[in-house]
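Hey, quick one: can you model this chain's 3D structure?
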Amino acid sequence: MLPPVARQKMQAWIRSRHLICSGNFFIFETLDYSAIERFEKCVTSLGGTLISVNPKERVWLGNHRQILLYQAKASLHTPHHQLKQYWFKHGSFHTRFSENP
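Sure thing. Here's the predicted structure for all 101 residues.
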C-alpha cells in the first residue's frame, strides 16, 4: 500500500473515532478483524509497527447477538508524524466503542 493511501485510510478512521492517539501509540478498535489486517498494512506502509492485537470485550449488536471487539496498538516511529497532528485537529480521546465518549 502506498503511504498517501495509507494516510488517507487512517485519517478516515480518526474521523470515525475508530483510531485514537494515546501517548506515543495509536489505538485502533473495530468489530471486524479484517479491518485490523488493513490497519496493520497502513501502519507498516507509514514506517510503523503493529505492537499487539487483543480481544477487548463483547459488544451487543442488536438485541440477540454479541460480537467481539478487537483493539490493536501500533507505534509510528516518528514523534511528530503528520498523522498525530491530524488527530489533534480531528480526533477524539475516546473511540466510538468507549463507555465514556
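One thing worth noting: Residues 3-15 form the longest helix (13 residues).
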